């Protein structure tokens, strides 16, 4: 076994001594968040064509994580999850632009309460309710990522101001210089790069279209190459600002006592990447540098999630994690990159410009995806729909010149389930969900997904949020209003999901019932069909919608038991070994008073 670096680390990660005069002996933490940077579009992660000397230097000086994942390939939901240490659907900000509600606990206020100076600079995108958790928030102009509402809103897509201001990074170093001395600090440095829109001439030595690496999910045509080259240029601009932060930490003599974490909020803003549950959407280029604490040039293949960042930072700062956190402490990994902290990561796909709902579980070897919106194509974000790449792909689609992977953003219906062998098929092109040889893997993943669904009380929304843009042109639809309202208050008190063929008790799920008998408004969780329709109850996910809007409270009973309340003060119970069977009655429900 490879010797670990600095064996004393584990016992000394928290409350380590630091140089004199700089606070109570806790590390500074600088979290750098790229916007829409694919995990493999920087030199440190294998793309030698993108000029990222500073990100590469950061990786050489620390640990590179080869299996790090965001919880949603979508800007604000990913950030809301990161700052709360919770899965998107547990933040009440799981859809794009839904602001983070004030009830949510963030790791930042925990740092602040114990003496850290905390500041955010650049892209914010979390709403107003949690800004006060930082001592200082210096927000970049959001015009660069908020599409307007009118049909002629394209001009508003590009951030205003100088080249540096358009990067979202121009206040990073000024904020670092303004920090009060003598206190540990935490900085949330969020770029607008390399988010769309793109324009030429933003860096001194632009990338050439002939040099870019075209992912297999995109056609190798001049329009796509030019689009990718401009995306690379924004990565290059981001890299320059990362270099300036590294230099400023050196100038201030703080580099040695500062943990720098670098990551992206989601994948590249191209079809079959951002907003998808493929690795091209959810994998992130996580780097951790902490001189003297993390072995330079080390690599970890352990699965990690960005919801693990919150508990990890607090652990390193000697602070008890919040009970609201759902992630795991990664600090042992910083000592030994082979440490295994989790068997699976989970990710979500919720509304992002278009109707969307899906979930994924990924082990080291396999990816399982459940699609709840099969009737919709996997349309990329609206700004990507407007891109030269998508326009070229529409043309090639009409000519029949796209590969199946490239066509996937146009095709519906899509499969209910997907399963990929990530070792043999890292681009996720061969769906093994129907392959008998992988039946056990599929069953294991379904079971893990059901368990996670139960533990995190995940459920289908009563109604999926509608498209706000045309799927062909990216033009706004009349129902689009800004600012986006907060998450609507549910008119029911919850919902219940169960998987076909699984013993209810084994899943420890709430009851399932003869829904048609007990509650005529029960709907299928996949297609929202009503009982008696062609769909019901053959689908493997079924949802019980409660319809007591006057009583927006939870049933006092634990939903994890075999009981759940339904309208009319009734609840139903299912026997421990009853199974949900396709095409038949769900089971005999016993009615009682709740
Ligand atoms: Ca983003």
Derived from helix and strand composition plus strand pairing, the structural class reads alpha/beta
First CA to last CA: what distance?
57 Å
Helix content: 10-25%
Uncertain residue segments: 1-24, 154-158, 490-594
CATH topological fold name of the largest domain: Alkaline Phosphatase, subunit A
What do these coordinates show?
It is a single chain. With 594 residues, the protein is an alpha/beta fold. It folds into two domains: 6-146 and 156-342, Alkaline Phosphatase, subunit A (3-Layer(aba) Sandwich), CATH 3.40.720.10; 490-594, no CATH class. Helices cover 22% and strands 13% of the residues. The chain contains 16 helices and 19 strands. The protein has helices at residues 9-12, 53-60, 75-84, 107-113, 163-167, 172-178, 222-251, 279-282, 309-316, 331-335, 382-385, 388-398, 404-407, 439-455, 504-507, 515-518; strands at residues 28-34, 63-65, 68-69, 117-122, 136-139, 185-190, 258-264, 287-289, 298-300, 304-305, 345-349, 358-362, 366-371, 417-421, 523-524, 542-543, 563-566, 570-573, 590-593. It has an eight-stranded mixed β-sheet, sandwiched between helices. α7 (222-251) packs antiparallel against α12 (388-398). The termini are far apart. The model is unreliable at 1-24, 154-158 and 490-594 (pLDDT under 50). The structure holds calcium ion. Calcium ion is lined by residues 35-36, 75, 195, 265-266.
List the main descriptive attributes of the protein structure presented here.
594 residues, alpha/beta, Alkaline Phosphatase, subunit A, 2 domains, eight-stranded mixed sheet, 13% strand, globular, disordered C terminus, binds calcium ion
């Amino acid at each position: 076994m490879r010797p670990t670096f600095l064996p004393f680390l584990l016992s000394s990660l928290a409350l380590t001594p630091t140089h004199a005069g700089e606070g109570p002996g806790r590390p500074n933490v600088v979290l750098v968040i790229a916007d829409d940077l694919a995990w493999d579009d920087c030199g440190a992660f294998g793309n030698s064509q993108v000029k990222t000397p500073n990100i590469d230097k950061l990786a050489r000086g620390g640990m590179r994580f080869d299996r790090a994942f965001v919880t949603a390939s979508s800007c604000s939901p990913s950030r809301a999850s990161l700052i709360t240490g919770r899965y998107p659907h547990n933040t009440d900000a799981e859809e794009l632009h839904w602001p983070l509600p004030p009830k949510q606990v963030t790791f930042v206020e925990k740092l602040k309460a114990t003496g850290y100076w905390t500041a955010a600079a650049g892209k914010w995108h979390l709403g107003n309710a949690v800004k006060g958790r930082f001592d200082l928030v210096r927000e970049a102009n959001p015009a660069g990522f908020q599409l307007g509402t009118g049909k002629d809103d394209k001009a508003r897509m590009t951030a205003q101001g100088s080249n540096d201001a358009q990067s979202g990074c121009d206040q990073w170093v000024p904020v670092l210089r303004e920090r009060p001395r003598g206190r540990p600090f935490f900085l949330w440095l969020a770029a607008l790069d390399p988010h769309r829109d793109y324009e030429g001439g933003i860096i001194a030595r632009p990338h050439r279209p002939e040099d870019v690496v075209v992912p297999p999910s995109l056609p190798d045509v001049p329009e796509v190459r030019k689009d990718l080259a401009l995306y690379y240029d924004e990565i290059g601009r981001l890299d320059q600002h990362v270099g300036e932060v590294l230099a400023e930490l050196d100038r201030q003599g703080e580099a040695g006592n500062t943990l720098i974490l670098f990551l992206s909020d989601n994948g590249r803003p191209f079809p079959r990447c951002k907003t998808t549950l493929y690795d091209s959407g959810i994998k992130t280029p996580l780097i951790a540098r902490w001189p003297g604490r993390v072995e330079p040039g080390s690599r970890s293949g352990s699965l990690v999630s960005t919801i693990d960042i919150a508990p990890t930072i607090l652990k390193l700062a000697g602070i008890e994690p919040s009970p609201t956190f759902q992630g795991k402490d990664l600090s042992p990994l910083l000592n030994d990159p082979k440490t295994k902290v989790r068997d699976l990561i989970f990710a979500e796909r919720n509304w992002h410009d278009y109707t969307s709902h899906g979930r994924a579980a990924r082990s080291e070897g396999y990816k399982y995806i459940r699609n709840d919106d099969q009737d919709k194509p996997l349309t990329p974000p609206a700004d990507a729909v407007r891109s030269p790449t998508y326009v070229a792909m529409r043309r090639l689609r009409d000519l029949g010149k796209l590969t199946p992977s490239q066509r996937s953003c146009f095709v519906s219906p899509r499969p209910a389930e997907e399963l990929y062998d990530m070792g043999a098929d890292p681009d996720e092109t061969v769906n093994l969900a129907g392959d008998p040889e992988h039946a056990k893997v599929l069953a294991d993943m379904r079971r893990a997904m059901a368990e996670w669904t139960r533990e995190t009380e995940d459920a289908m929304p009563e109604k999926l949020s509608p498209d706000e843009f045309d799927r062909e042109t990216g033009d706004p639809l009349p129902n689009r209003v800004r600012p986006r309202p907060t998450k609507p208050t549910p008119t029911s008190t919850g919902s219940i999901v169960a998987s076909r063929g699984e013993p209810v008790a084994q899943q420890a799920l709430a009851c399932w019932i003869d829904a048609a008998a007990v509650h005529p408004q029960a709907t299928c969780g996949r297609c929202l069909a009503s009982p008696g329709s062609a769909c019901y109850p053959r689908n493997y996910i079924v949802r019980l919608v409660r319809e007591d809007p006057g009583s927006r409270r939870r049933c006092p009973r634990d939903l994890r038991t075999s009981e759940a309340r339904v309208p009319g003060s009734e609840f139903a119970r299912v026997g421990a070994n009853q199974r949900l069977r396709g095409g038949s009655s769900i089971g005999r429900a016993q009615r009682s008073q709740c």
